[in-house]
Amino acid sequence: CSHSYLSHGRKELCGTRNSDGLQFHTVAPWKSNVPARWQKHTHLPCMIHVFRNGDLLSPPFPLLLSKSTPLQWDTLLATLTEKANLRSGAVNKLCRLDGTQVSGGEELVSGDYYVAVGNEEYKKLPYLELLVPRDSVCGKLWY
Fold first, then answer.
1. Phi, psi values for residue 40, rounded to 5°
2. Backbone phi, then psi, for 28, in 5-degree steps?
3. pTM above 0.70?
4. Average model confidence (pLDDT) for the chain?
5. What CA dihedral angle connects 103, 109, 91 and 63, to 10 degrees?
């Protein structure tokens, strides 16, 4: 297993060097199935950015999710409802920017942007282009 093509943060996946041995104790077995961006920071909480559906005046709000405890989807939706303060009421679903619905916490990728949606349909709008400065988007996409 060659380390030349692996980034520094993913050495725990290889395990051929003794100096990396300690990292095995901090990586849970289930994390091998999570997106690469999560693997790089296995000890850090997940931070997502959430837009309000149809709202092109309010910037996205950050939401910090602990990865040390299992994520209860209902609890996440309740937290989103409280923070998003949608005109339509409770947040019923969370969508990616392309409109596809996220069905569980394991699908969330740290650093990514999502849209909180209530009873209404997802509104496909240029949220990222209008509400997030271009340089901060580049920083998020290259994690």
1. -65, -30
2. -75, 150
3. no
4. 76
5. 150
* Angle at the Cα of 103 from the Cα atoms of 100 and 109, rounded to 5 degrees: 75
pLDDT digits (tens, 9 = 90+) for 4-48: 444 444 444 444 455 544 444 444 444 455 555 544 445 567 899
How many helices and strands in the chain, by DSSP H and E?
A: 4, 5
What is the DSSP secondary structure assignment for residue 60, as one 8-state letter?
P
Pairing of strands 46-52, 113-117: parallel
Residue showing tokens 């091998």: 32
Q: CA–CA separation, 45 vs 26, rounded Å? A: 14
CA distance 47 to 24: 24
Domains of the chain (ranges, CATH numbers): 45-130 (3.10.20.230)
**Coil, strand or helix at 51:** strand
> Cα–Cα distance between 67 and 71 in angstroms, integer?
8
